[in-house]
Structure formats: structure tokens, C-alpha cells
Design a protein that fits this description.
The chain is 38% helix and 25% strand. It is α/β, with parallel strands linked by helices and 172 residues long. The protein has a 5-stranded mixed sheet with strand order 3-2-1-4-5. The longest helix is centred in the C-terminal third of the chain and has 21 residues.
């Protein structure tokens, strides 16, 4: 768990393009991001849950081991959805800055079979797992967020990645 004072809140602009917005009334929002330093390389994952008042409910951060960029982004959202289920968040808004992941989630949520979403052997098991998880929510809104609106999740993912790189440097 990361102490809240380690990150700053996303910038808030009057035009609404580059800002975090609170979720719809009664929903919880998951912002997620993954970082990979190399492709494949050391990875970090991070996500943040907020309620409809913008209050932080849960934060998760970890290193993901050695993975590709796409594996990392899929793994972080998979972990976030599992946390949401464990905590009873049945009405969820999911936002991330990876267009590939958002498009995959939308396809899976609309009933497209996992094998039509990804043909990569590296990501197929994660896509299959996501397919089985998505049906467990009462309501699910999936949106692409600009990087500026996803700064906290980006910070968490990079922090997790840095932690892994330091461990690898100290052991090698």
C-alpha cells in the first residue's frame, strides 16, 4: 500500500479534457495503469478505486515481474477487477489510458469471444480470465482516459516498476 501523500491529485482544467472526473452516483471508479521498462522488461502495476464523491477507497500497486507492455496492461486491469469483486463493487466505471485494453474490454463485455479479441499467445490467458470476470458485475462502464486524467495510476505503476528494478539490481 502506498501512502496517499506520495502522489498528487490529477490536474483539474476548466475545459474538462485533462481532468479526473468522479464516477456516476452509486458507482465506484477504477483507474488503472501498467508500466514496462522494456518489451518485455520489468513491470509495475497500479490502480486506484474512488467513490462517487471522489474519495479514495482502495489502492493497489505491485511489480508484475518480467512482461510485455500488453501483458502488463491486461494484468493490471484483471487485478483491479478481482479486487472490485472481492470488495463488492458491482457498479463499476473502468478507466485506463491504454486504448488496446479498453477496446479489448469493450469487445469482451459485449460478448465477443476471447479468441476473437487476441491471437497473441502472450495475452490469451489474460484475455480468457477477463472474459470470465466481466460477467460478474451488475453494471460496467468502460472508458478510455487521457494520460492526464490517469496520473495517479501512472504514478503507482511506475513506482511498482521501480521497486522491481531496484530488487533486480540488488540481487544481481
Amino acid at each position: 500500500m502506498v501512502a496517499p501523500q506520495l502522489w498528487k491529485e490529477p490536474r483539474r482544467d476548466d475545459n474538462g479534457i485533462k481532468q479526473f472526473s468522479t464516477p456516476t452516483n452509486g458507482f465506484i471508479k477504477l483507474n488503472f495503469d501498467g508500466a514496462s521498462k522494456g518489451n518485455p522488461g520489468p513491470t509495475g502495476i497500479g490502480g486506484l478505486f474512488r467513490d462517487d464523491q471522489g474519495r479514495k477507497r482502495r489502492v493497489y500497486v505491485d511489480n508484475g515481474g518480467i512482461m510485455s507492455n500488453n501483458e502488463t496492461k491486461l494484468m493490471v486491469v484483471c487485478q483491479g477487477l478481482k479486487i472490485a469483486i472481492r470488495n463488492g463493487y458491482n457498479k463499476l466505471e473502468v478507466e485506463g489510458d491504454s486504448l488496446m485494453v479498453i477496446q479489448a474490454l469493450r469487445k469482451l463485455n459485449n460478448g465477443t469471444s476471447w479468441d476473437k479479441v487476441s491471437r497473441s499467445w502472450r495475452t490469451s490467458s489474460l484475455i480468457q480470465e477477463l472474459e470470465s470476470i466481466l460477467g460478474r458485475f451488475d453494471y460496467l462502464n468502460i472508458r478510455h482516459a487521457r494520460r492526464e486524467a490517469n496520473e495517479v495510476a501512472d504514478f503507482l505503476a511506475n513506482w511498482g516498476c521501480q521497486e522491481l528494478r531496484e530488487k533486480m539490481d540488488n540481487n544481481g
